Amino acid sequence: MTAYSFTLSGVGLPGSEDPLGLWDTSQEGALSFSAGAGAPPADPTWRVELPESPEEAQVILADRIRASELAYRDLGRVNRELTYIGRAETVSFSPSDPLLAQKAELLATLDAFQSPVSYGLFRKEKESEDRESRQQWLAFVERVQRMVAHYARIETALAGRDVGQTAVGWTGDFTTTWEPNVTIEMMRAHRQSVRLALGARIALIRIVSVVATGAAGLAVKAAVPGGQVLLLPAVWKFVRDVLAALRGSWPQLEYL
Amino acid sequence: MPGEFSEERIIEGDLSEEEAKAYFEELQSSDELLCFNGINGATGAYGVPPMSGEELLSVIKGEPQPENLGELEQKRAPGAFPIKPPNDATRLDQAGWAAILSARSDPAIQEALGELLRLRQEQAGERFKIYEGAAGYRPGETKDEFFQRHKVGGGPADPEQMPYYVLIVGSPEEIPYDFQYQLDVMRGVGRIHFDALDDYASYARSVKLAETGQVKLPRRAGFFGVANPDDKATQLSSKYLISPLPRKLREQQPFVRWVEEGDVRRKLELEWQFESFLAEQATKAQLARLIGGDQTPALLFTASHGMEFPLDDPRQLPHQGALLCQDWPGPNQWRGSIEQDFYFAGDDVASDANLLGLIAFHFACFGAGTPRLDQFAKQAHKEERETIAPHNFIGGLPKRLLSRGALAVIGHVERAWGYSFLSPGVGAQTGTFESALLQLFRGDPVGWTTENLNLRYADLASSLTTILEELDYDPDYINPYDLAQKWTEHNDSRSYVVIGDPAVRIPFALPDETPEERPDLGTISVPSGVPPVVEAQAAVPSSEMPMDAESFAVAFGLREQFDDLTGSIKKFTDQLATALRDAAADIMTMEVKTYAVDDLEAVAQGDRERARLRALTRIEFDGDIEVYVPGKRGEVSDDLRQMHLEMVREAQANRAEFLGAMAGMATNLLKSLK
Predict the structure, then answer these.
(1) Closest to A172 (Cβ–Cβ): which among B115, B590, B674?
(2) Interface with A, mutate which of B568, B578, B608 (most A CBs under 10 A)
(3) For B312, left (φ over 0), alpha (ψ -120 to 50), or beta?
(4) Rg (CA), chain A
(5) Which among B133, B268, B619, B627 is most buried, taking Cβ atoms within 10 Å?
(6) Size of interface A-B (CB pairs under 8 A)
């Protein structure tokens, strides 16, 4: 099995998953949301480890680029689904709709807000689910916040040897440093890593937008005062779950 | 038709001035009826009834002066060039590429076109632009107003101001045909609009496959010319256009193409194979073999009637502009509604048709699209232009071709007239087609090849204006048939449009390459089943909302949640505001730096001392770019220099997208707090 990895660290949230399913965040360091006040956190770092063979590296990167395209496309679909649910007078689903469960869950939450008592908004088990969703949404926002507040650092290594490193500032300044014996193939691999990382960063920002506009649309539909805020966790969960469900229908990619 | 002049001489356009004059006089004395393209599918009659030269003259006198006459005259001036020198229109990094979307365009469309946009960005580099959102086309805007807003000057295209190749993304209702015509005078313009997001994604994939060397078609072109019985219009187009075209092109072979390989320019001599399907061979079944069947060529040129349907006819939207084939027995043998068995429409293209790489050229009425209002009525001096369609639209056939892999369709919006093939003395229009096709066979971008038609239009529009002014003083200034010839040629060259990306080329195999089967188009799926959407609207106060948000939260025990969530958003938006304020000075410039270092690990630990700056690019907000490299030649390798430039492009693309996404996020979060 070829050794390769795409990891994101430095966003300070151990265990938080990438909703796009593209970057591994499991190797996150000890920094955490609550620990942020102590030592200054490192910049969010996107690290790509590739095998030595340029051909193999290229295939791995091509697969990852394809996966990114699919993920961004899926995000567009989530946005449309939310808009449709928010606008339609009544929403009917086909039993064969692969997103039936996620839509039903979101509508149930909406019903609960519209009629809090009869729909059991205050049931104990629901309360715990809601708290978990809320914590996850807050953690995600915190993570995006950290991501955009700091430099993005992108590193590419081939066979364990660092070949290129790019730091991207808030206003888009690029500083790239190359190791001395870098070849054009290695440089290209790093450029693709940069594109992948920055694309993913923008997609995560867009997820915040999709959740916020989705919640706003549903709040209008449900006529819930403050629904645009209160519905954020439920919409976030919907977005995350739908993205995960749609990933299941991606074509087979060897290196994902 | 007068028999004194041989067909060959008329086809070749080699009549002397005196002979041409005599020819036109003979047409006039015999009151020759002029027949035009277009058959009404509901009645089976001609879309525009045949008329004499005198009758047509009265129509032509109603021709209004083109609104952009000044620009047309500039274009036809000797030595004029549509793109500012020394830019090469066949190179995207010099000519540039832009997409114009409606200001209210659905963002999902851009997402679906992602592959195409990224490809063009790579190819055009700094000369890649997307006009969208506030920068997009605004309802009712003219080309001049659009240019003014974007600080683009008139005259030959300056790609630094606005790229030469422009893809309009949107229906002609959103971005009108008039805007496209006006833009087309000094730009290479195309348009796409599909009903489903899948089709946008599929088209983007087709262009990407074609432009990344994954399609190598045999150099084969098909010429399909209908000549229906008792029908003068198609008999003329078959005889004077489709028959001579391949012969004239064959005489000019081999077509020369220069390719650049590093510093070396290599000359390629290209031989094409032409196959003609004329009259009895030009059946619907044959066309099906050419469009998706086993004979699908790299380029297909058709000349036939285009189908017209009356307003509110259910067939109008799907079938207007469909190609009437030889199967129609002609006006004498067939009366009444035209059956679909006689014509080839979009829904006749097989669902598994693979048209990858095809470029089609349809000479037919409404072959590319239909305007809502009849242009002919305007020319005929009628007070009101007749409404001929519920709205402006692109034809069903070109849309279907593009969704199945074709790269572009060149055709008419409006009527094609056809009489102009009969062009004694000059044979001009065939020459215009020859030039356009020759360039396509050479591998030039389609938007550049249609410059031939645009130039011809500019030339004819200017001279026609002069003729019409002269006619006001001297009714005998020109023979009506001579004028009819000029006018129809002018009309035919005016309303050609490219449906598709104007920068596409025919992806043919070079002489040292082996042609390959078309690769599988695959199934490209952008989820559908939901109506086209624009971003969800922010919440608005509703009369049904009984209380404010905070009171609601308190009343239902949701205070903690509410405070947590609003606190988080507020913290984020406050941070964004601070970051924006801090960045306000920095944002005026962008720097891209390239360093080389012996110990990358040390740099990772924060030690930049040992890093040597090898290249620096500073881009000012107003677009000024400064590039710094070490003074001694050879200190920076070509690879490093090239990669630095690629990083500059990445940085530019990222900055625009990042700031756009940030602005969107900030706006949406702030709306949540309201």
Answers:
(1) B590
(2) B568
(3) left
(4) 20
(5) B619
(6) 243
Backbone angles phi, psi at B567, to 5 degrees: -60, -45
Q: Is residue A217 part of a domain?
A: yes
Report phi then psi at B367, rounded to 5: -60, -25
pTM: 0.57
Contact A172 B575 (CB under 8 A): no
- Chain A, 84 to 103: residues with Cβ < 8 Å from chain B are 84, 86-87
Question: Cβ separation of A187 and B672 shorter than 8 Å?
Answer: no
The total of structural domains in chain A comes to 1
Lowest average pLDDT, out of A162-176, A188-202, B330-344, B486-500, goes to B486-500
With a CB cutoff of 8 Å and minimum separation 6, the contacts of B300 are B221, B222, B224, B290, B291, B358, B359, B360, B361
Q: Up-side HSE of residue B412: CA atoms within 13 Å toward CB?
A: 31
Q: Which of residues 187-206 of A touch B (CB under 8 A)?
A: 187-188, 191, 194-195, 198, 201-202, 205-206
**Is the pLDDT assigned to residue B527 strictly greater than 50?**
no
Q: Are A115 and A249 in contact (CB under 8 A)?
A: no
> Helix, strand or coil for residue B3?
coil
Q: Which of B462, B348, B364 is nearest to B413 (CA)?
A: B364
pLDDT tops 70 at residue B623:
no
Q: With contact defined as beta carbons under 8 Å apart, do B612 and B600 qualify?
A: no
The verdict on residue A204 lying in a domain is yes
CB contact B618 to A (< 8 Å): no
DSSP annotation of B238: I
B166 in contact with A, Cβ within 8 Å = no
- Structural domain of A62: 5-88+95-247
pLDDT of residue B1: 44
Q: Is the dihedral of CA B418, B419, B424, B425 positive or negative?
A: negative
Mean pLDDT of chain B: 80
| Residue B46 near residue B458 (C-beta atoms within 8 A) | no
B535, B545, B662 ranked by CB distance to A223: nearest: B545
Q: Does a structural domain hold residue A116?
A: yes
Shortest alpha-carbon distance between residue A146 and chain B (Å): 9
Residues of A in contact with B111 (CB under 8 A): 72-73, 75-76
pLDDT in tens, B430-465: 777 888 899 999 999 999 988 877 777 777 777 777
Q: How would you write B92-143 as a 3-class SS string?
A: HHHHCEEEEEECCCCHHHHHHCHHHHHHHHHHHHHHEEEECHHHCECCCCCH
Single-letter amino acid code for the residue at B543: S
In a domain, A225, yes or no: yes
Instruction: List the 419-478 stretch of B: residues with Cβ below 8 A of A.
Output: none
**Residue A126 touches partner B, C-beta closer than 8 Å:** no
